[in-house]
Amino acid sequence: MSFDGSFMHAMSNELNNELLNGRVTKINEPYPNEIMMTIRANGNNYQTLLSANPLYARIQTTKIPFTNPKEPSNFAMTLRKRLRGSFLNKIHQVDNDRVMHFHFNTRNELGDIEELVLVIEVMARHSNIILVEAKNRNIIDAVKRIGLEKNRYRTLLPGSKYINPPKQNMINPFDLNDFTTINQLNHDFPNVSVFATNLRQYLQGLGKDTSTALATAIHEPGSTIKSKYQNFFSNFNNPTPTISISENGKLNFSAFPYLNQKIEKQFPTLSEMLDVYFQTKVNHERVREQGSQLIQITQNELKKNKRKIKRLEQSEKESKLADEYRIKGEILMTYLKQVKSGEKLIVLPNFYDNNKKIKINLKPSLSPSANAQWYFKQYQKKKNAVKFINQQLKKTKAEIDYFENIKSQIEIADPENLADIKIELQNEGYLKIKNKVKKQRKAKVSKPERFVSDNGTIILVGKNNLQNDQLTHKIADKRDTWLHTQKIHGSHVIIRSFNPSEETIIQAAELAAYYSKARNSANVPVDYDVVKRIKKPSGAKPGFVTYTGQKTVYVTPNKEKFKHLRENVLKNN
Question: Is this model's pTM higher than 0.85 or not?
């Protein structure tokens, strides 16, 4: 389902119940065109996401943690200046359109009370967030500034007057009292798809999924069309948030379960449902978008090193024939008087093989003695090559293992973790640094993620090699407990306890398995040991360690347990 006007109606009710009269305590812009506003209301802190992302525009409260960017955008700074400390006294939807207004009471620089309106327009690629003065509708700023060259109907620039999006000549479905037109459409269009299309042209704020569900509900046998219509829209006022699977296998979300769709899961609130629906989908797309360069480098390095392995293995096979050159050289030296200058081939007895005849190729331009020396030189070259090839094979296999690890980290990464991976590849020389200055500041590594076990013990998880190094070798106490999946690429996990309970070890091991290449596997082996026994060899790649004396537990990664341990953090704050 799209985040259409009808879904916005339901979300408006939910946000009014949660946020009204709350105080704004924090404002951040974790991703471009997305504002995270923390509102303290009813004794709770609500992270409120206002998104103008062209693909995932929406409004909701969220429990998904985010990383604050190092430098706030100008729009985020403006919101902090004008709204931090203000009170949210009204939330309303414009008709049944995809536009919601947040009204705030705040004080201006003179100390006078003023009303500001944060307008959130959820309209795909035209989505926007605009801060407006309530008294005169002057725009203070917008997350996407739109000039006349882009939109002649209205400009969204500081100082301009805010104009509502173009109004459509449609009926608000929640205000409908006369059902003559609905009855006529139902009569004229017995086909559900065609009926749904005409409903969208008559009723405001209906996405394709909603209009199809409404058409299907009206076509159901039983009570009157008016009754079926009113029952359908009453569900938006008393929602049962549902993630379902359509007949074609597509995952959908809706304010309540629609007919002909298989219910996947239901939730207590719309926001909790959106968290689950968007978290995997949005993160995957953001990682794919923001990490495309890292993915390309990783794939190229893996292909290059795998080709190199094949070449080295072929050279290794050839090098194992070194003894043949030595034998031929010694036979030539033994029977040197029988070898004539200018010959291309000679057959001599092989005293290493019961004097069986052996063919030896000769270079006509060389003397008999020089031919023998040539074979000795080839023998020595091949013999030396074996050592070099073995070294190169070991090094290349380590490179493949390293980039398989990087690949795994990108696959399970959150967008904010990509910066660390980029820094690592720059430090290791795989990625060039653009506009490099002589005295470049050392990039700051992001913090490992924090979880809390059921008995209150802190568990820290590194999401990439730089975080893993920092966590294991700098943050952790030598007496803490370290965990890692056994012989499987994954995260370093630290239990901040000198004597953790068995329950905590199991929960930390489940995190280690979840943040590894074995995320979708069962019965994953996880090693654990005290930090003091975890060593990083000199010159080793980031994230690489050795350890001895470890114990092993077997666990199955579980997303629900992972969420539970994350929620424990909020409970313990």
Answer: no
